[in-house]
Amino acid sequence: ARWACQKGNAAGSAATAELYPADPDAAFGVEELAAFTSEVLDRSPQSQDADEKKALRQAYAKDGFLRKAMNYVERRLQEMPGPFLLGETASLADYALYGLVDMICKGDFDGVEPAYVDEFPSVKAHHGAVPGSRLFKEYVAAYGKEP
User: Taking the complete model, does pTM exceed 0.70, yes or no?
Assistant: First the structure.
C-alpha cells in the first residue's frame, strides 16, 4: 500500500497525497508508524498450544515488545499536531495503527485484553478519532461496514 501511495503521489494523485505525503519528513513519519504496526504483529508470540500462546501473549503485553511499542507510539501521538499523524487528515499510518488497536479493542489479539488500550490514552483517543476521518466514512458508506 505504501508503494502504491508513493506511485500515486508521483503521478499527481490527490487521493494518495492525502494518505502518503510528498514531504520527505512527513513521509518518514508515515513509514515509521506503518512499520511499527507490522513489527508488533510480526513479533507476536505464536504457539499451537492455546494455553502457551495465551501466556506468551500476556507476557508480550505486560513487559515485552508490545508494551515497549505501545509506550513509544503513545509518546509519538502526544507530539502530533492534531488527532492524526500529520494533523487534521488521516494518513496510511493512521489507518494501519487503527487496525492494530482495533484488533486489541475487539478482543481479536489473542492473550491481550481489550482494556489494555486504556493504559494508553493517546492511542485510545487516536483510535476514537479515525472513524471520523473522511476516507473512513466514505468506506463505511460504500461498503456498509467498517474496514
Answer: yes
Helix (H) or strand (E) holding 58: helix 50-62
Q: What are phi and psi of 87, to 5 degrees?
A: 120, -115
Backbone angles phi and psi of 84, in degrees to 5 = -120, 170
pLDDT in tens, 37-73: 999 999 999 999 999 999 999 999 999 999 999 999 9
Residue 50: CATH number of its domain? 1.20.1050.10
Residue 38's domain comprises 2-143
Residue 51, all three cell numbers? 494455553
Report in angstroms the alpha-carbon separations of 136 from 12, 62, 142.
22, 31, 10
Tell me the sheet residues that pair with 87: 84
Write out 60-79 in H/E/C secondary structure.
HHHCCHHHHHHHHHHHHHHC
Instruction: Using DSSP, state whether 17 is helix, strand or coil.
Output: helix
Count of the separate structural domains present in the chain: 1
Spatial separation of the C-alpha atoms in residues 98 and 80, rounded to whole Å: 15
